[in-house]
Design goal:
homodimer, alpha/beta, Rossmann fold, Pantoate--beta-alanine Ligase, Chain: A,domain 2, 2 domains, six-stranded parallel β-sheet, four-stranded antiparallel β-sheet, 35% helix
Chain lengths: 293, 293
């Protein structure tokens, strides 16, 4: 594995087609699934590793975001990643950036409302990664469904020759979506955290029984939150992130809640196949995540 | 010459290193100078040809902006341009863009004030050209000094692996900076238009006599405008576009004025060489510009 610190060193290490897996590090099986998908699709896999300060609206959240570069290097090495791009802060943000990338319309609900400036921070850093690393493919997790919509739109609007591919959410054995932030939960909070996925899966059961009404699906999700403080439960279209009164197109049912000091998000994507609604439940680990190794 | 309509066709036509000359068409000797500079620096020269609606704050200005693709194809062919990228509107802007690129700080004076939204339009389309065309080098005229600062900053902030090169302004024989908009002037207005460069050259004479005071240089420029209506006359630093009270660093003295319905801009760049101030007067044509051919 090549560990590189600069964009030009990353580009110099490429052979053939290049797939990018953008990450903020502290790898879990969700990241590993993206790395594997990338390896199956391209000659060179470059994993970027940078905790992007621009996308944190809350300084305390940025401060406590888990970081362990040594751990991540070992995991990336074991995963046979070709290039780990772990830029220094100076390489990534040499001075206060004056340039910002914004994506309107898709960002005025859910995470866009709860975390002001978050998506501008994401869009700016992803533009920078696409500009500087010039990948042919880029892999993102479906857990960040609104982010995925933002990035797909950004690629279209800015004509980046990058194919954006989404991968199902990877979950712990009890359903909790993997997130580096899960390591910040106390054991009591860890139990409460199950409410997010439990509500989503209850809604999937309702969908499979024929429920298509948006507000009713949203109430099922919010109704499951007892020990966690809900931020939102919302059904929205996958492309435009427009709230849906009916589940009649590719969509996602999203939930966000605060468990202690930790803010968690999750969602289930609904796709249409031959007129049928198909829920993407994600993948479920049978063993404890490497987050707790 | 390859005439291409899509980003992917443009990229498929490259051999070796690639230099981009972004234009809005209706070529004049300023564009030809950029094409020649590009040919001297790269294996493939791609000239983009698109009147960018995003950068026009005034619909009437967009409407009357001169256009003649047949004329421009002939000129580009004669100039031995390798690739003329003349995208259709649908290729360039398939739907109302939701993504915008902004550059703060450098854009809150001069053109940024006079043309609200102009630099966001420029930054967005240049980001798109850099993203979609992936040039190694890009050539811009020094006539648009504030735009040059914006693009240099954008490249830095977004880590585009593009070297931005600036070329001196090309002027008609009486000093008027070449601009496609010059063709919109009546013969009376054409005479009045000389006031912009006359004021700038008078200021250069003062600088060469030792004048370094910003406001005094600005008054010389504004004092030359009699038949044209001044928008501004301003001395600013080249990198941060900060107004200068003293000419003590790389800077440009800029002027903008309205002549009839046509808005014109011009500037003289001042560089420092071994402690000496050197004015970039640009290049001057000895014959009528091909604008009038």
């Amino acid at each position: 594995m090549n560990l590189v610190r600069t964009f030009s060193d990353a580009r110099a290490s490429y052979k053939g087609t290049v797939a990018l897996v953008p990450t903020m590090g502290f790898f879990h099986e969700g990241h590993l699934a993206l790395m594997t998908a990338a390896q199956n699709s391209a000659d060179t896999v470059v994993v970027s590793h940078f905790v992007n300060p621009l996308q944190f609206d809350n300084p305390a959240d940025l401060e406590r975001y888990p970081r362990d570069v040594e751990r991540d290097m070992t995991i990336a090495e074991e995963a046979k990643v070709d290039v780990l791009f772990a830029p220094t802060s100076v390489e990534m943000i040499p001075q206060t950036p004056l340039t910002a990338v914004t994506v309107d319309g898709l960002t005025d609900t859910m995470e866009g409302v709860m975390r002001p400036g978050h998506f501008a921070g994401v869009a700016t850093i992803v533009t920078k990664l696409f500009a500087g690393l010039q990948p042919h493919l880029a892999f993102f997790g479906r857990k960040d469904a609104q982010q995925l919509a933002v990035i797909r739109r950004l690629v279209l609007d800015l004509s980046f020759p990058v194919r954006v591919l989404a991968h199902p959410t990877v979950r712990e054995s009890d359903g909790l979506a993997l997130s580096s932030r899960n390591t910040l939960l106390t054991s009591e909070e860890r139990l409460a955290a199950r409410e997010l996925s439990q509500g989503l899966f209850a809604a999937v059961t309702a969908v499979e029984a024929g429920e298509r009404n948006g507000p009713r699906l949203e109430s099922i999700v919010r109704g499951a939150l007892h020990s966690s403080r809900p931020d939102y439960g919302e059904l929205a279209s996958q492309d435009r992130v427009e709230r849906l009164s009916e589940l009649d197109r590719p969509s996602f049912l999203a939930v966000a809640a605060r468990v202690g000091k930790v803010r968690l998000i999750d969602n289930i994507a609904f796709d249409l196949a031959a007129g049928e609604v198909v829920a993407d439940r994600g993948l479920r680990l049978k063993h404890p995540s490497l987050l707790y190794r």
